[in-house]
Amino acid sequence: MGVRAQQKEKTRRSLVEAAFRQLSAERSFSGLSLREVAREAGLAPTSFYRHFKDMEELGLTLVDEGGLTLRQLMRQARQRIADGGSVIQISVKTFMEFIDNSPDVFRLLLRERSGTSAAFRQAVAREIQHFTAELTDYLEEKQKTSRDYAEAQAQAMVTLVFSAGADALDMNEDERAVLAERMILQLRMIAKGADAYNKAKRL
């Protein structure tokens, strides 16, 4: 990559990070203006258009990056599991760390999942599908079950986790700890139920 291309990528990153910094519990992406994002990034508003067509394109980039960040963390969790430990316990711990460290990234995914923009809803749906597909792959391999069963289990787990994550955003540390234990219990129930169902189907 040449110097010019590197500088362009650096400026693009500064816009993405500036937008993420301005998100909060009180402020959604739809409440951001192009001028505010450019000013936060230390750029003139006209510079914005060299990197993004409009604010929607920037927002879709945030959704993609938010989903990718979460998937990368869960992949790391699975690597930690390979070294020994409970798959569900480590996964929940990793997810709650993500909520704690990047609450506004998760808020973005939740808000845009049911937002007014069809493009944003589709983008979040794609990220959730990627997340579910990776978990399906893992369950299919580890449990030696059919793709359909693994996918059904993965969908149930992802739905539960995203719902609990939404609750966790407005909780304090102690409340989140209680929620994490409840998530572990519920996910284990889903896993045990799936295992029993798979065994029954083989009979």
TrEMBL record:
SUPFAM superfamilies found in the cross-reference section: Homeodomain-like (SSF46689)
Residues in the DNA-binding region annotation: 33-52
Organism: Oceanimonas smirnovii
Protein name listed in UniProt: HTH-type transcriptional repressor FabR
Keywords: DNA-binding, Transcription, Transcription regulation
Family matches, as PROSITE patterns: HTH_TETR_1 (PS01081), HTH_TETR_2 (PS50977)
PANTHER family (UniProt xref): HTH-TYPE TRANSCRIPTIONAL REPRESSOR FABR
InterPro entries xrefs: DesT_TetR_C, DNA-bd_HTH_TetR-type_CS, Homeodomain-like_sf, HTH_TetR, HTH_transcr_repressor_FabR
Pfam family, one: TetR_N
Residue ranges annotated for the HTH tetR-type domain, each copy included: 10-70
